[in-house]
Design goal:
The chain has 645 residues and is an alpha+beta fold. The protein contains 9 helices and 29 strands.
Length: 645
């Protein structure tokens, strides 16, 4: 005969809460009656040979979880033992074993007596155990046969007939006759079906908890899922609540969902995340604005909490070649009410670096305007004052740059801009001035899934290609020249978890390659700051910045070149919760011809440690040159936030 139990699956979801409440009650009784005489015990749970079932049993056992933290008196311990049968039976049934049995035995070694956990004399027996003796409690579970699903039906509550589902909804539901009757799988199927119905526009769909019919004779469980699909709805009126300084017109233009569009939770969530990415809201929520259809639509209510408009930050970095870099920044968010951002930064540079001759500065203002002229097209502008005192040259410059960034395709972003630079270069006691006009063009690819550049990538590829046509108008012996700077960089990340070596995200191999060329002019016709240099964390660690490539004799003065190539392989290993380590090897060269892979190849190697913070890893690397250049550094230290690449 079939056994019917409407709540047989529902009990699985509520069992944990009820059992914890029961344990708390027994604890309260104990402290009120037997607090002065707790009875210690130790529990052993025999494995069943099935790992997921063993995990469920251990998680459900109060005797195991409370034995070291909640010592109780004899009567409370007896109650805990009796409750254990129900807890473990629920765990058995949740894994599909409906005919299993739980056996609990208690033993006093000093008395040499064993007591069954179901005995009515259990409390009195525990009370007779000699003082200070731990009771041995052994639990054994006979799991019995695994039950499977019998018939699986979906019925509409109002009509009692099966609802019409499309292929995607049927696939999402996924339950079928013959699969193991695991409660988690049965309950999850209802959630997947509800998501699939809503994604198809059924905004008011309901999928209730299933009814289960246990049939011991056939060792099957019949399932009936009540379903109310409801009508297919479009998105209705969209209301915006909580906007203060932010212009509602901008938010509406930015919205990626619109009235009349098919109601789809994934599209609505994508719109919410897109608004969050603007950086001006501390919180964005969206909810259905009605519990019933409104003229065949479902209205939406977007609610906003605007973040602080001003922020102050600091920047700090150090390497032995470039020295310390210290400064502060001030940011104004939502400057004109359309999510514009203004950032002012002032830095002191060159504090004690081996590639530096003295202190410099870098002062700039950045302006960012999203959705410039059209959606997803951003305007970036910068005005910058710069002074750098390298061994190779001393530079004082004023720069003005502007550009437009927009998505080109999936994972692809493009940038086009214009730049002007007025600079004075001092070299070998001779000063020359240059006016440089350029039109940088670049394309970037990134499928790492990491939006924050400081957060380490664990998979995927990052790549960029840049072409910058430039016109240099010189003075005082520096003639006019036209040249094009071209470079490309790619990095990829391999998680060794794919090879079964480590847990996900813990062991990473990172590779980086860079290639560059300047076309249209020779080295001496190009302003010194526009030439190609290598060395340092961006190319070859162990060599100071500008320490790789042609030099003036055996001095520390770099000439620079018109071609560059460099490569890196790095192993990154997470240790414990917040620490990590890295080992790396870099190689690169700078040539005097426009063709890469010329010049003297320099190789460096080293390692470092990482401390992982909520905003990214703090990095400390030490590298040494393997074929040191004349007058080159014997070692270099690099400290910064985020991985090198």
């Amino acid at each position: 005969m079939a056994v019917y139990n409407r709540n047989i699956l529902g009990r699985f979801t509520g069992a944990a809460n009820r059992l914890l409440a029961g344990a708390a009650l027994w604890g309260a009784l104990t402290y009120g009656v037997h607090a002065a005489d707790p009875q210690p015990y130790v529990t052993s749970l025999a494995p069943t040979g099935q790992s997921d079932l063993d995990t469920a049993l251990k998680a459900s056992s109060d005797l195991l979880s409370l034995q070291s933290t909640r010592a109780v008196g004899p009567f409370a311990l007896a109650g805990r033992v009796r409750s254990e049968y129900d807890r473990l039976q629920v765990a058995l049934e949740s894994c599909g074993y409906y005919a299993g049995k739980v056996h609990i035995l208690l033993r006093s070694a000093k008395q040499g007596v064993t007591m069954d956990g179901m005995s009515t004399a259990l409390a009195s027996w525990i009370e007779s155990v000699p003082a200070n003796e731990k009771v041995d409690i052994s639990i054994k579970v006979d799991k019995g046969p695994l039950f499977h699903l019998g018939s699986v039906k979906l019925v509409e509550s109002a009509t009692g007939v099966a609802p019409h589902l499309n292929d995607a909804q049927t696939k999402a539901f996924g339950l079928h006759t013959g699969q193991p009757a695991v409660a988690a799988d049965v309950l999850a199927a209802g959630g997947r079906l509800l998501d699939a119905l809503r994604e198809s526009g059924h905004a008011l769909a309901q999928v209730d908890k299933p009814m289960a019919y246990l049939r011991p004779a056939t060792r099957t469980l019949d399932i009936v899922y009540p379903v109310v699909p409801g009508p297919v709805l479009d998105i209705g009126k969209i209301s915006l609540d909580g906007l203060k300084r932010m212009n509602a017109s901008f938010v509406r233009r930015r919205l990626t969902v619109h009235e009349g569009q098919l109601y789809q939770p994934s599209s609505i969530e994508a719109a919410r995340l897109d608004l969050t990415s603007l950086g001006v809201f501390s919180n964005v929520t969206v909810r259905d604005a009605s519990d019933k259809a409104v003229n065949g639509t479902m209205p939406l209510d977007f609610s906003f909490q605007e973040g602080k408009r001003h922020a102050i930050g600091a920047e700090l970095g150090y390497s032995t070649d470039l020295g310390a870099r210290v400064g502060a920044m001030w940011t104004h968010y939502n400057l004109l009410g359309n999510a514009e951002r203004l950032r002012l930064t002032a830095l002191i540079t060159g504090l004690g670096g081996s590639a530096q001759q003295g202190l410099g500065y870098d002062v700039y203002a950045d302006f960012f305007k999203p959705d410039f002229l059209e959606s997803k097209q951003n305007l970036n502008a910068r005005i910058e004052g710069l002074r750098q005192l390298f061994w190779s040259y001393r530079q004082t410059a004023l720069l003005l740059r502007g550009g437009i960034t927009r998505p080109l395709a999936r994972n692809w972003t493009g940038n086009f801009g214009l730049a002007a630079e007025q600079e004075r270069i001092e070299q070998f006691d001779e000063s020359r001035s240059y006016t440089i006009l350029s039109a940088p063009l670049s394309g970037m690819y990134d499928n790492t899934g990491v939006g924050n550049p400081i957060e380490p990538a664990t998979h995927g590829v990052r790549a960029s290609i840049n072409i910058t046509p430039s016109l240099s108008l010189g003075s005082k012996g520096a003639g006019e020249s036209f040249f094009a700077i071209m470079n490309a960089t790619a990095s990829t990340y391999v998680d060794l978890h794919k090879l079964g070596i480590s847990p996900p995200g813990r062991s990473i191999l990172a590779f980086r390659g860079t290639i560059g060329s300047i076309q249209g002019a020779s080295t001496w016709d190009i302003p010194p700051d526009q030439r190609m240099y290598a060395g340092g964390s961006a190319t070859v660690r162990g060599y100071r910045w500008q320490g790789v490539g042609p030099q003036y004799g055996n001095t520390k003065y770099a000439i620079g070149g018109t071609s560059l190539d460099a490569g890196t392989v790095e192993y990154r290993q997470r240790l414990f919760k917040s620490f990590g380590m890295a080992a790396f090897a870099d190689a690169g060269q700078v040539g005097s011809s426009s063709m890469p892979f010329t010049g003297t190849l320099r190789v460096g190697a080293g390692g470092g440690v990482r401390y992982y913070t909520p905003i990214g890893p703090v990095r400390l690397d030490i590298a040494v040159p393997l074929n040191r250049a004349p007058r080159g550094d014997t070692w270099d230290l690099y400290i910064g936030l985020g991985e090198t690449f």
